[in-house]
């Protein structure tokens, strides 16, 4: 499909040593440059984050923690990890940060290891209602090694019902309660969850993987005053490298650290730790605050534009970066729509909607979000155009109108050309 590149402007050594792989990287750069990426868990990292994640820190083994390593030669790595942890605790206002989890799923598994024995009960949001696999869903290790009890959202509001959560917590007595999720378009009521957790003696984990960047930028309330543990990926709205962090109150620091290492992992990925530190430094700045608020403004505006074109939004809209769209009334299944949108240069994922009558692999909805387009500087005034393209592509999916899809793709590319992405080569 793509001709091998003999040179790559930013990766000359890679292009010389492995032209085939370099060509794939170049093709992916082109794809990310040309398309309107609306996957709410994706983003564009800065050139600085990208550089930090490709450094010689890659070459080190560092089992243990700063000052308590199992390998010598950690003079510099200790400083890198301490810097990342310090920036994390200061940005999220928690006592302790562990920046070693390889990604969000292992971070969550470490939380189970820190607080639960196999068979103990965990209360989390059900996957088809917007929760994450690792919140005790059946096919996940967290739902087979532990007893998962699940809350959902109300059919009439599309929102979490804390009365349901409280009733479940009182009846099931979970040791761990997860709040947050992957397809939750509304503000998480950390205070409400904390009250329930306190009443039943459970540890409250706020899984803010999706909204960490909004929290850091002041565009979503902070879980810090309420949660015992905050779990987050670093690569979604936070706009760092692929990785994760566990933040906690001081009393849980030791349990969390022991669970991550030696409980679950070996050596940390130091190049990722460095890139997390860079991302956290960026997230503490004024530009990031503006970005976080713009993500929300763009999502709200896009939601209004879609609703005015007759789209059915779960919960009626959004408070954050994410929209969940039920396509039942459009006569197109989620997957068919997502594939047509992809051909139109608009990248989304198919998603279950609450009480979805269709199967999870071919559900009724799509999930879209505004972090990546906001990182490119696309303003709210373009959301009407975005909504119009989504409308046209979904309609074209229903009627099989491929020329209409090709027309949208050309228009999308024209918009994207006007907003170069951070971290990608220009032109
Ligand atoms: C993305 C996500 C995770 C898992 O992150 P991975 O890095 O994909 O393992 C966990 N919890 C929530 C709520 C997420 O959105």
What does this 3D model show about the protein?
By secondary structure, the chain is α/β, with parallel strands linked by helices. It folds into 2 domains: about 50-285, Type I PLP-dependent aspartate aminotransferase-like (Major domain) (Aspartate Aminotransferase, domain 2, 3-Layer(aba) Sandwich), CATH 3.40.640.10; about 300-415, Aspartate Aminotransferase, domain 1 (Alpha-Beta Complex), CATH 3.90.1150. About 45% of the residues lie in helices and about 15% in strands. It has helices spanning about 10-15, 20-35, 45-50, 75-90, 105-115, 140-145, 160-170, 190-200, 210-215, 255-265, 270-285, 285-310, 335-345, 370-375, 385-400, 400-415; strands at about 35, 65, 70, 95-100, 120-125, 145-150, 175-180, 205, 230-235, 245-250, 310-315, 320-325, 345, 350, 365-370. The protein has a 7-stranded mixed beta sheet with strand order 4-10-9-8-7-5-6, sandwiched between helices. Strands 11-12-15-14 form a 4-stranded antiparallel beta sheet. It has a two-stranded parallel sheet with strand order 1-13. Helix 7 runs parallel beside helix 8 and helix 13 crosses helix 15. The longest helix has 23 residues, at about 285-310. The model has no long low-confidence stretch (mean pLDDT about 95). Pyridoxal-5'-phosphate (PLP) binds near residues 103, 181, 207 and 209.
Q: Could you name the key traits of this structure?
A:
single chain, four-stranded antiparallel β-sheet, 427 residues, binds pyridoxal-5'-phosphate, alpha/beta, Aspartate Aminotransferase, domain 2
């Amino acid at each position: 499909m793509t001709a091998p590149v003999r040179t790559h402007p930013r990766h000359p050594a890679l292009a010389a040593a492995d032209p085939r792989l370099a060509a794939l990287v170049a093709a992916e750069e082109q794809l990310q440059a040309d398309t309107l990426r609306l996957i709410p868990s994706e983003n564009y990292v800065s050139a600085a984050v990208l550089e930090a994640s490709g450094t010689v820190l890659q070459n080190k083994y560092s089992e243990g923690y700063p000052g308590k390593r199992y390998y010598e030669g950690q003079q510099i790595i200790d400083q890198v990890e301490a810097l990342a942890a310090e920036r994390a605790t200061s940005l999220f206002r928690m006592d302790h940060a562990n920046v070693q989890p390889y990604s969000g799923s292992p971070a969550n598994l470490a939380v189970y290891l820190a607080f639960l024995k196999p068979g103990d009960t965990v209360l989390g949001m059900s996957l088809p209602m917007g929760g994450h696999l690792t919140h005790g869903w059946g096919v996940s290790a967290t739902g087979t090694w532990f007893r998962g009890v699940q809350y959902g959202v109300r059919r009439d509001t599309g929102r979490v019902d804390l009365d349901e959560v409280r009733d479940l917590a009182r009846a099931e007595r979970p040791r761990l309660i997860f709040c947050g999720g992957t397809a939750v378009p509304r503000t998480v009521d950390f205070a409400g969850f904390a009250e329930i957790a306190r009443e039943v003696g459970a540890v409250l984990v706020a899984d803010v993987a999706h909204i960490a960047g909004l929290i850091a930028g002041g565009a979503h309330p902070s879980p810090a005053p309420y949660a015992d543990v905050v779990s987050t990926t670093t690569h979604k709205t936070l706009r760092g490298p692929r990785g994760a962090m566990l933040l906690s109150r001081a009393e849980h620091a030791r349990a969390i650290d022991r669970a991550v290492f030696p409980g679950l992992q070996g050596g940390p990925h130091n190049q990722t730790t460095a890139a997390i530190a860079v991302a956290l430094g960026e997230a503490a700045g004024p530009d990031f605050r503006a970005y976080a608020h713009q993500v929300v403004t763009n999502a709200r505006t896009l939601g209004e534009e879609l609703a005015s074109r007759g789209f059915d939004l779960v919960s009626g809209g959004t408070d954050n970066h994410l929209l969940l769209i039920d396509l039942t009334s459009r006569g197109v299944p989620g997957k068919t729509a997502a594939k047509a949108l992809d051909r139109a240069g608009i990248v989304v994922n198919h998603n279950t909607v609450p009480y979805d009558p269709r199967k999870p692999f071919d559900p009724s909805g799509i999930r879209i979000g505004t972090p990546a387009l906001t990182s490119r500087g696309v303003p709210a005034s373009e959301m009407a155009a975005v909504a119009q393209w989504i409308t046209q592509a979904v309609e074209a999916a229903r009627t099989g109108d491929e020329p209409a899809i090709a027309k949208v793709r050309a228009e999308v590319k024209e918009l994207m050309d006007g907003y170069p992405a951070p971290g990608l080569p220009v032109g």
